[in-house]
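LAB NOTEBOOK - FOLDING QUEUE
OPERATOR: T.R.
BATCH SIZE: 2
PURPOSE: Compare the predicted structure-token outputs for two unrelated chains run back to back under identical settings.
PRIORITY: normal
REVIEWER: second-year student, initials M.K.

ITEM 1
FIELD SEQUENCE / FIELD STRUCTURE:
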Amino acid sequence: MMRGLIKGNNAFVPTAALRVAVRSGVDVAALLVTEHGRVRGDSDIVFDGAPAHTSGAVRLTGTEDGTVWLDTDLTSAEETITRVLLVASTEEGALRDAHGLSVEVLGPDGSTVVTYEVTDAGDETAMVLAELYRRSGGWKFRAVGQGYVDGLTGLARDHGVDVSEDPRETPAQAPAPVTSNAPVAAQAKALATAQGEPEIQPQPQPHAPAPAPAPAPIRRPTREELLDMTPDQIRALAMEARASAQEAPDAPAPSAAPAQPPHPHTGEWRHGSDFSPRKLRGRENDVITLEGLPPGVVLVELDVTGRGYTGMWPLDSNNQTMRYLVNSTIDDFRGRVTATVPEDGRLRLKLNTEGEWRLRVAPLSTAPRLKGKPLKSNGPDVLRYTGGPVDVVFDYEGDGNFIVHLFELAEQHDRSRLPERGTVAVNEIGRRKETVPLPAGPLVLRLPSSDGPWSVRLKNPGAYGEESYDDGGVGVEKLLEPRKVLSWLRRGRH
């Protein structure tokens, strides 16, 4: 039953895959925040420059006629995420000029669950329109309408987003700059002092000769310390560490310690080309043409509202259909597949379906990433995995064929394409619960045939350090990369 809310009202919504429409031609973003009301980092901000959260909980799926659509799968939200904020902003003028500004939440069956019309916008250039938040084991929707005259900068700062421009300025309590002739021990002491840690003096053993002096070890800076250092400081610290390693005397072999398994990946996704997603919509059978795409593998998301058969095929240069991408009889089809863009950058697709459809072509990097939280769907899908060797559990509840293809990318030299041949990890008919061992990532898991509900989860995510190897390392090159979120923040600055 639809409920129209006014500012401050709230209502329960289904804990399921919901669609959210934000209307009136504004820029839209989503912030996934913890119980403290703050994001954990830039990756918790979903906007057109980073259209999908790594958990799969929120995705920007298209803009049509001034309406921005978001898909929210609340079952995929990580436990530490307690609220999803829906944010609107404008680059010119104020939000009072956005006539008909509203939020509408649609349930899994397409019916409207709740709506909120913003009627009191003023001089604000950014606003938290509404939020989805956990309550009593479920989720609720609240009409918020909290505006910010200082735009996205003020809104972002209130929710823990780093609004500083790169290169970062050294704050008053930042670690002291590293110089090429400064002693290593002094640098370690400076880092410790900056963090408020007491200096620990070694205690000599009685009646024992004084040990020979040894170079003081460098305390590895934390991620927070590195983020507070300038690029010159980071480079100098790296040079100092390399010099110290070359000068250090040979050390005895360490006592028995468990050896870490080798991992052929860095935890950073580098496969597929980067480009702005393309969105199209239509009705019933059609031939779709997209120009100017980067050659290679892309992610194709198809959402159909209607009953009956849905089929989609790529067309070759002679307009002949190639092997199908979608072949489904489920109603209201939703799924993701991969397609290969030819060298001329022109992707042509033949679509047979009933009812309205929405199609999105996006980089492979926007595919959901398999990590600690289970992923669920009821159609074909494409997943990424970037951790170490791990076991995964597939649980399929449909009656048809369930297939999982596995593509290992570590040795794939052409990063714009998938390997020509993959491994068939699962090929079963009917209900099935099966555990499959995965090698170390990066991997692509393609589920081309799954007409029924399914889920997948890691059976032992910590056994080989999936969380540690996935995003844990912070290198100099990564720190010096431009932050994508800055392009979003700059929209509110004049």
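ITEM 2
FIELD SEQUENCE / FIELD STRUCTURE:
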Amino acid sequence: MDNQSENKNPQEQPKQARKIIWIVAAMVVLMFVLIGSFGYNYVQSALKPLDPKSHKKIQVKIPIGSTNKQIGVILEEKKVIKNGFIFDYYVRTKKFASFKAGYYELTPSMTLTQIAQELQKGGANVPINSGKVLVREGVTADEIGDVIATNTRFSKKDFLDLLNNPKFVTQLKNTYPELLTSALAAQNVRYRLEGYLYPATYTVSKKTTLKQLIEQMVAKSNEMYAPYFAQIKQKGWSVQTALTLASLVEREGVTDDDRQKIAGVFENRLEKGMMIQSDISVLYALGTHKKNVTYDDLNVDSPYNLYKNQGVGPGPFNNPSITSLQAVLNPKDKDKGYLYFIANLKTGKVYFSQTYEQHQELTKKLAKDNDA
């Protein structure tokens, strides 16, 4: 009996082995199907908002120089998204680029597209709701309003309204008469205190009012500009005129040397009765930020458009630094008679011309270089 059983086993073993192989193969296939299904579902869920119903605001700091992968890790750790690796894959696939450093307020209910778009706009320079208001050189009152709305309990609208509040600005003029008398006499200005909100960092405590914050900015302007009031008068200018020119020079130039030369160009044009024709004036008139100004833009109907209006315009186009005021008071190479300038977009170098023909030749040459 035992011998017969032993004799049958060798014949049954191949069948049993094949059965085991099929079972193992089926289990492997099933495992891959389950893994694939799980992986697919996980990826699909990671592409969606982490919590569509969440209204929680999460502050996220993106350091300078962060890669997409590093940003993904930060967002995952902060519980804004489900998976940083998938975020990295998504933004590369959708060709999102030029993410900017700074502080952001994001919510888990945001889509990856919404998050990527926010990161492209740029974050705050200081922690949000920190009570710190950083006014950068050359920013407009409108841009300062954005910073105030982000970092304080005050609204942008209330801030901008106060800049034109007759009673408030008159009180400031009475406190700082040399600084603000010409500003209050100006016509057709967008914001009465544009140009007088000095670039610096301001701290807003729980007791600080919005009026006190603005007065801090104006007081700082008075402190910085007061040593130059006499020199401004010697040139036959008002403070409003000097700061308006300084605001143009601030944005047209990059280096202090360039700003001094550009100031000389503007002064030469004014003395010859020519229009200043600054793109900075057009952008302010449009109330927008653009890399390139079109021919249609040059026709915008605004007293700030210096392609259509003589002089320097109603008032400052931004809030300039002290170095820009120094540039317009002490222009460089003015005696060389430069009337035109153009910058190489690749190198940033600024070229100056005495005649329109020279300017046109440079413009054509630089256009070829920039396209190469």
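REVIEWER COMMENT (ITEM 2): The first strand starts at residue 58 and ends at 62.
FOLLOW-UP: none requested
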